[in-house]
Amino acid sequence: MRTPPLRSSATNTPSHVPAVCKSVGNVDKAYRVYLELKGSRVPVDSHVVGVLIATCAEAMKRDLTVVHERKEQFVLLERAFQYVADAEAAGVVLQAPVWNSLMVCAGRSGELNRAFEVLQMMQQRGIPAGATTYGSLIESCVCARQPDKALRVFEVAMAKVRVAAVQEGNPATARGARDHAYLARWARRGGAA
Known about the structure:
Elements: H1 16-23, H2 27-39, H3 46-59, H4 67-89, H5 96-108, H6 112-124, H7 131-143, H8 147-168, H9 171-188
């Protein structure tokens, strides 16, 4: 006797299928499942979109040495952007983790400008950039071999933490932010005292 698939209570989406595909690293199977869901008009929620994009990001982890692998990454990046476009067209409100995964996809494919574009898209939708978002953007910079930009993003993130700490009146957070800023300057100088 076969048990029916688990469904997300909010949208009636088989929520475990894309997650299973992600866990086994099968980006093509996840895409086929998505197409089946789309074809059968089953609504997809923000969580499922996030898992689909994370599946693309996982498939991009390996270091690229062959030209055809680079092309595969561009295909996966475009697929991830299409997941977002389809979800928004269907009225799905995407949460920060979805945007963070999309940002990582862009960075891993070497498309750093697209990662910054994702940050802009988030801001246009009123989604605040938190620590995870800045971490995703820093990872994108590192993957795109732009360590100077990664450091700049870190500095911007720390400045925002300092401003928030001062506005909240939290001296411990403000002191921690100053310590992080000092460490960033120290690292930039190559660890020289």
